[in-house]
Design a protein that fits this description.
It is a single chain. With about 140 residues, the chain is α+β, with helices and mostly antiparallel strands. It has helices at about 20-30, 55-70, 85-95, and strands spanning about 1-10, 15-20, 35-45, 50-55, 100-105, 105-110, 115-120, 130-135. Strand 5 (about 100-105) and strand 6 form a beta hairpin. The chain is elongated and about 50 Å long.
Amino acid sequence: MKTNFKELRISTTKRRELIDITDEVCATVKESGIEEGICVVYSMHSTSAIIINEPERGLMEDILTKIDDDFPRERDWLHNRIDDNADSHLAGAFLGPSLVIPVKNRSPCLGTWQSVFFLELDGPRSGRRVIIEVLGV
């Protein structure tokens, strides 16, 4: 089995923000030379998430609105006694830091309208780290 490892550095400009990283994921898979296997995309931060969805502007705004509705910043979360970002930690825990994408013919198996997003939940931040690892043959 072969592996290929790449680390992305992402800077964000808003508190909550979707960053499309599909091109970087596809390029990493292609560069790996791996014909068939899996691609793991993993955020190294507990106040962020990795998701797959459609890159339509309205839907992207709807996703951010839903996160705000489900994890309101102004709620009296216990973690806010230590650090004022409990809503970001909770959203990240429920959405998840990673995903696995099948690889076939040196390409991630994404549907026509699917893109891979880094979801910033506690920005703006610089130097966010995302790991892309491709494993296979």
